[in-house]
Amino acid sequence: MGLEQFINEAISPWLKQDGPDSDIVMSSRIRLARNIEQIPFPIVASQDELEGVLHFVQNHFNHQSFEHYKNLEFVQINELTTTEKQVLVEKHLISPHLANKSNDGAALISKSEQLSIMINEEDHVRMQLYFPGLQLEKALEEAFQIDDWLEEKLDYAFDEHRGYLTSCPTNVGTGMRASVMMHLPALSMTQKMNQMIPAINQLGLVVRGIYGEGSEALGNIFQISNQITLGRSEQDIIENLKSVVQKLIEQERHARAVLMDQSELALEDKVYRSYGVLERSRIIESKETATCLSDVQLGIDLGIITNISKSILNELMVLTQPAFLQQYAGKTLAPQERDVFRASLIRERLTLEQKEEF
């Protein structure tokens, strides 16, 4: 199916799987930044040089497979509509920066959408690999294998003392960004998350929103990632990140238990009110949708709501984003029209989910 699947299916196949601590950790990601030796970095390269990188990658990797990462599809950014580009951003298959490239950007995306390799983003190659739940070590192990496979045909820019050379100085060294997407509603409700963020930053990590740098933590979803790559090994980075994430999991579980013990009725009321908004609204904005979905997901995790699966919420988190809504509608929608269509789509999807229960 290729591009049609990437753009028309809201939930990536790998997201339908459960992983360790998946009630709190939505996904683990490893991203490796690489550049090709003797070719200027994308920020200074000529159009001809960047197009040369594109053609080389397309000729050697399009429709190729590596182990269970099947049928890598070469997607050229300038052949997509504005809406299609934004859909791929909303599904985390490409970055906002790559979506804004004019003629020289592309991505290789596996059939499962678990592997995405961005070409001529900030670096020549930015490979990202996702796993459900907390699986940083497994993601790193497989990312190394894919990196070795790519290097069979690509000569990377590497310095014996500095490590992998990248456009941004903060990526020099391992060239690795490890990140974990977490749903932390109880810490947010109890105002503890705001207190924890400065402490997390002091440990060499950064807390961002769902779409990375500069984005808002919609729906109580936070992305925790490393800031430093130079002078530290990939394993050290992973261990530091994992230790902080495990502490956040512990604190979130404790906060949920306290809420259930001390404010169970109020929490149930909050969850069911949000469920009611999703089920009955005729107009709903994306920010309110994310908040309500977060409350309902918390209700599912705590056993308050039992007639709806978690997968439908993962689907709706993507399906109700502005670009995906318009792709689904098959036309451009004004903001007010999107809010109406979003509400209608949520009602329809929840009704279908409830029918499947009986």
UniProtKB/TrEMBL annotation:
Pfam families, per the entry: ATP-gua_Ptrans
Domain Phosphagen kinase C-terminal: start-end pairs: 24-255
SUPFAM superfamilies: Glutamine synthetase/guanido kinase (SSF55931)
Gene Ontology MF annotations: ATP binding; creatine kinase activity; protein arginine kinase activity
Gene3D superfamilies: Glutamine synthetase/guanido kinase, catalytic domain
PROSITE patterns for this protein: PHOSPHAGEN_KINASE, PHOSPHAGEN_KINASE_C
Superkingdom of this protein's organism: Bacteria
Activity regulation as described: Appears to be allosterically activated by the binding of pArg-containing polypeptides to the pArg-binding pocket localized in the C-terminal domain of McsB.
Broad class of enzyme this protein falls into: transferase
Signal peptide span: none
Positions contributing to ATP binding: 27-31, 92, 126, 177-181, 208-213
Record-annotated membrane-spanning stretches: none
Any single Gene Ontology cellular-component annotation: extracellular space
Residue positions of motif RDXXRA motif of the pArg binding pocket involved in allosteric regulation: 338-343
Enzyme Commission no: 2.7.14.1
Keyword flag Protein biosynthesis: no
GO terms (BP aspect): phosphocreatine biosynthetic process
PANTHER family registered for this protein in UniProt: ARGININE KINASE 1-RELATED, ARGININE OR CREATINE KINASE
Family: Belongs to the ATP:guanido phosphotransferase family.
Function per UniProt: Catalyzes the specific phosphorylation of arginine residues in a large number of proteins. Is part of the bacterial stress response system. Protein arginine phosphorylation has a physiologically important role and is involved in the regulation of many critical cellular processes, such as protein homeostasis, motility, competence, and stringent and stress responses, by regulating gene expression and protein activity.
Protein name as catalogued: Protein-arginine kinase
Native species: Gracilibacillus halophilus YIM-C55.5
